[in-house]
Write a structure and sequence with these properties.
This protein is of the alpha+beta class. It has six helices and ten strands; from the N terminus they run αβββββααβββββααα. Helix content is 26%, strand content 19%. Strand 6 and strand 7 form a beta hairpin. The longest helix is centred in the middle third of the chain and has 20 residues. The protein is elongated and about 60 Å long.
């Protein structure tokens, strides 16, 4: 650290990214470290551990600073404004970690390298040529990005999923629930409106790291929606017309097998497959 920051917060440490990871590894009860950012004195970074073995970063932009070492009076993550670090932890980080944990607990998550996922997809396609196998994993090149890999025909396709405090970002849309994203994907992946292979994005990196504007909501809606999403009853019908309270028997609500290598259900696929 070239210049130490004077920030009185229990989660703040004047350490580098590598040092923050080592601190988190030694403290199993701690899931984040706030630290200086290499972007300079007008930024901070949060290195956090959503689940064991995964370390990610959040960039905070500071404004209204009294001096270079002090904490800014206004803090921003993308276009969301926060009053202090405690608000960021409570209103953003906690929800973000919760969403990442939900993703890693999903039945289509694989804690594999992309190459290992590719091998799995080819194997399943070979065993069942009429299926469309798919899995979610982490990007090996971009640590903040998740990858939806699938094999509809002979070539594997890969699409980007981003996670934030509001939910799951995919194809320029924000989905509060991962299963809603997967319903959209299965309905739209073979249509003209679907942007195949998000790695060809025209933004500054091939994964569209700077292509976030269309996915942002205003600050007040973001914060209130974080609370509302956590408190909403599962009995509601969501924007996709899918009842979140569809009764299941033995984990499924229909016994018809579809091309996605699973059992059809209104909740999982968005429409019951017809034989």
């Amino acid at each position: 650290i070239k210049k130490r920051r004077n920030i009185g917060h229990p989660s703040f440490h004047n350490v580098t990214y590598k040092d923050a990871i080592e601190l988190l590894k030694r403290q199993s009860h701690v899931n984040h470290i706030i630290r200086p950012s290499p972007k300079g004195p007008s930024h901070l970074a949060i290195t956090y551990r959503p689940v064991d073995g995964i370390f990610m970063n959040i960039l905070i932009r500071e404004a209204e600073k009294q001096n270079q070492t002090s904490l800014g009076r206004s803090l921003y993550i993308d276009d969301m404004k926060f009053e202090d670090l405690d608000e960021i932890v409570a209103m953003y980080l906690d929800f973000l970690i919760d969403n990442i944990r939900k993703m890693t607990q999903h039945r289509k998550w694989r804690d594999f390298s992309e190459d290992q996922v590719d091998i799995l997809l080819y194997s399943e396609k070979s065993a069942n040529p009429s299926s469309i196998p798919y899995y979610i994993s982490r990007s090996q090149k971009y640590p903040e990005v998740f990858v939806l890999s699938y094999l509809p025909y002979q070539a594997i396709r890969k699409e980007v999923i981003r996670v934030d405090s509001q939910g799951f970002k995919f194809q320029g849309k924000l989905f509060p629930k991962l299963d809603q994203l997967l319903i959209f994907f299965k309905k739209k992946f073979n249509t003209e409106s679907f942007s195949h292979n998000s790695k060809t994005s025209t933004s500054s990196d091939p994964w569209g790291s700077n292509n976030n504007n269309s996915l942002q909501k205003n600050t007040n809606n973001n914060k209130s929606n974080n609370v509302n999403n956590r408190n909403n009853s599962s009995q509601q019908v969501d924007e996709w017309g899918i009842s979140q309270s569809t009764p299941k028997q033995n984990g499924v609500s229909s016994q018809q097998v579809n091309s996605w290598g699973g059992v059809s259900s209104n909740e999982d696929w968005g429409s019951t497959q017809q034989s």
